[in-house]
Amino acid sequence: MSRFWACLMLVLGIATSICQAADALVVPAAPAAQEAGAAPSQILVMLHLPAPHFRPDANYGGRYADDSGRSARHRIAQELAQAYGLTLLNDWPMAVLGVDCYVMGVPASASPAHVVESLSRDARVEWVQAMEIFQARQQNKSPDPLFPVQPVAREWHLAEIHQTATGRNIKVAVVDSGIEDRHPDLQGQVALKENFVDGNPYVAETHGTAVAGIIAAREGNGIGIVGVAPGAKLLALRACWESPDKTTQCNSFTLGKAINFAITHGANVINLSLSGPPDRLLQRLLDAALSRGIAVIAAVDPHSPGGGFPASYPGVMAVSDGGGGGKGGLAKVFIAPGRDIPTTVPGSQWRFVSGSSYAAAHVSGMMALLLELRPVRNAPRGQGEVVVHAIDVIAPLAAGAIDICATMTQTTGKCLCSCTSTHASKENHSL
User: Fold this and answer.
1) Which residue in 41, 356, 357, 430 is the catalytic one?
2) DSSP string spanning 192-252?
3) How many CA atoms lie within 13 A of 273 on its CB side?
4) Considering the entire predicted model, what is its pTM?
5) What is the pLDDT of residues 154-195, one digit of tens each?
6) 207, 304, 320, 362: the active-site residue
7) Can 357 be counted among the known catalytic residues?
8) Using CA atoms, how far apart are residues 141 and 16, in angstroms rounded to an integer?
9) How many beta carbons lie within 10 A of that of residue 139, not counting itself?
């Protein structure tokens, strides 16, 4: 612990003035902050993908072969673009949904809503939607930047729990901005990384690296922090990008590509520390993930009356840091540590962060621990049980602080850490 103190104090002594955090919130995106090379107004056009089509092998990278079917659909997309005065910009197979997704630019002289309405009546189109924008905003710095202790180490009894489970062999997909996999606390923790932001190379960025460290930072290396699930392997899926003003954004297309990739590459948990408006493409992909037993964890937007999407989507585990707001309209919100959390940031450094993005990361790590202990867990059958303490006396089932000791005891039948919790209410939750 003394080495951890020394390292963290040194880093904080250098970086106190730039101690920042990110939490999820959707706001209108400026054109310059959209995906590199993207037009200011874009729509997504889905064309039906006839089976058989998706045959991944050892060399499959997410795209499809240039066969006659693909060429035919591309010609249809070109015809649609020409007929409706659009610009064909990009495409990607959403194999788990049976559609090809085409990004089309809408000219400034046209109304995107009108174009969507017109295309939705075209028999060649499976469905069409607007390109939605998702954004992670910067928060105020931690109020006590020298606070060196991980709250999760105390509140969740990590040292005791790690004697039984570390998330070994569990794949956690971090759909976020870029992760610094060479960080000393993340070396060897990233199984693979993929970039879904076209025209923008994979780079290490703050939000994604911070989320990754909370989930799976190395244990026992003598420096830094310990992740909730240090035995888990991360899929570093860059679907968001950091803008010059330090905001972090994603859109429907980049997120869709990343979630599709996570599903087809065996993710057990998908972490979505972001929020935005309801999105049909992402809803369909979340349905596909949940139907396969993948645990989907999302951050609650404290500024949205409904908690924001995807936290509000049925089957998704909505997580807050307990800071208030964002519960209205949600059947259940899980509260996890999310205030003054030391974690990894680019440049082989550590920093304190706060927000529901990081609370969600804690729960993704917890799910990796539970899945290691009960690998046959299946989401649709709701086999997973998370024990919580009710913290809202008016609506006690709406929000609860996770009692990980009681949850682990419920899973294993053995007392793994503090077993003296009282007033805990056991809740079934489809994972």
Assistant:
1) 357
2) EEEE-STTS-----HHHHHHHHHHH--SSSSSS---SSTT-EEEEEE-EEE-TTS-EEEEH
3) 36
4) 0.82
5) 888 888 898 999 999 999 999 999 999 999 999 999 999 999
6) 207
7) yes
8) 9
9) 15
